[in-house]
Design a protein that fits this description.
394 residues; Nucleotidyltransferase, domain 5; six-stranded mixed sheet; 15 helices; 38% helix; globular; Aliphatic_acid_kinase_CS; EC 2.7.2.1; kinase; magnesium
Length: 394
């Protein structure tokens, strides 16, 4: 069974074609910088590789380019669109409506649209990817895997905010949690690698969006993102935790509109607001050059992560392993070092030489004396989506 997995983001479309149940990746790629002049498609299969810079102006053009390369007579991997049996979609926000993987119908699409206001950088593009895939792959079953589903196990003590109960009961204002597909995948890999039947794990997903999850025996019990994917850690352009009174001050005293504040906190803050750069590679280059803004931003980033590590150790009453994952978590040895330094009191000791080793595989980077295991596990949300979609339709 061929499953095409589409992860449609705000300016990108990641995709993998996976044969199930063998989990064989037939091809994979990404359309990046959609809407920009340097928009490009990268595609790789066992026998070919394609790089195109066609300046894809819209997601529709980007997804059409994916279909074109899949069907290409020389470098493609399918003969016709009906060779795709299932299209699996990552959807960021499913609220309380979806606690598991779901076959997409009109009601599901309406719910995804309803939650768009809670994930404005994600759900609209997730929905657009679904609508385009329905048009381009009319014979395929469309399946949604929700980032929020993994966090449905968070208990009320961590799920509720200290606001009037009616806002929870009538309007579902609560902690939902995100990046659930990634946290589920890497935590299960960690348990398997460490041969743990019972476990206390902190999963740290660091990309343009960042989050941490406290996971006990494979179940999410607390998470750094909340009602929307904007709280918690310092992110690429999102502020993370902030005193909410700052919003009132900006509106009432500084004259900002609410729309301006929302845009500032989601698109102009975080590492971008602190340094002028949104790409961590540029920020780390700034650190090497002695840029004081970049140095302080990295220190703030690591400090925020450390605070969550301490709180999650307390919440779980212990810790077996820390997992770093996603683009920054997997590739930034500098940030991993900064996070794990001076945590010896918790039994967390990083091995400097193991930490700087370059690898795309699961690896341990803790010192021999470390009581807590420190792992770097490449996330594979696309494979996790394919597995869940396959299991749903069996």
């Amino acid at each position: 069974m061929n499953i095409l997995v589409i992860n449609s983001g705000s300016s990108s479309i990641k995709f993998q074609l996976i044969e199930m149940p063998s989990e064989n990746v037939i091809c994979k790629g990404i359309v990046e910088q959609i809407g920009a002049e340097n928009a490009r498609l990268s595609y790789k299969s066992a026998h070919s590789e394609v790089k195109k810079t066609d300046g894809f102006a819209t997601h529709k053009e980007g997804l059409q380019s994916v279909v074109d390369v899949l069907l290409d007579r020389e470098k493609g991997v399918i003969q016709q669109v009906s060779d795709i049996h299932i299209v699996g979609h990552r959807v960021v926000h499913g609220g309380n409506s979806f606690s598991s993987t779901t076959e997409i119908n009109a009601d599901v699409k309406a719910k995804i649209a309803q939650y768009a206001s809670l994930a404005p950088l994600h759900n609209p593009h997730n929905l657009q990817g679904i609508l385009l895939a329905e048009h381009l792959f009319p014979d395929a079953t469309q399946v949604a895997v929700f980032d929020t589903a993994f966090h449905q196990t968070i208990p009320l003590v961590a799920q509720k905010y200290a606001i009037p109960n009616t806002l929870f009961s009538e309007h579902e204002i609560q902690v939902y949690g995100f990046h659930g597909t990634s946290h589920k995948y890497v935590s299960e890999k960690a348990m398997e690698y460490l041969h743990l039947d019972t476990s206390k794990i902190i999963s740290i997903h660091l990309g343009n969006g960042c989050s941490m999850t406290a996971i006990v025996n494979g179940k999410s019990i607390d998470h750094s993102l909340g009602f929307t994917p904007s709280t918690g850690l310092i992110m690429g352009s999102r502020s993370g935790d902030i005193d909410h009174s700052i919003i009132f001050y900006m509106v009432n005293t500084l004259g900002y509109s609410l729309a301006d504040v929302e845009n500032l906190l989601n698109k102009e803050s975080g590492m971008l607001g602190l340094t002028g750069f949104s790409d961590l590679r540029d920020i780390q280059a700034g650190v090497e050059k002695g840029n004081t803004d970049c140095i302080l931003a990295m220190e703030m980033n690591a400090y925020r992560i450390k605070k969550y590590i301490g709180s999650y150790i307390a919440a779980m009453n212990g810790l077996d392993a820390i997992v770093f994952t996603a683009g920054i978590g997997e590739n930034s040895s500098l940030l991993r070092k900064m996070v794990c330094t001076n945590l010896e009191t918790f039994g967390i000791i990083i091995d400097p030489s193991k930490n700087v080793e370059s690898s795309q595989e699961l690896r341990a980077i803790h010192a021999d004396a470390s009581q807590v295991k420190i792992l770097v596990i490449p996330t594979n949300e696309e494979l996790e989506i394919a597995k869940q979609a396959y299991q749903l339709l069996q």
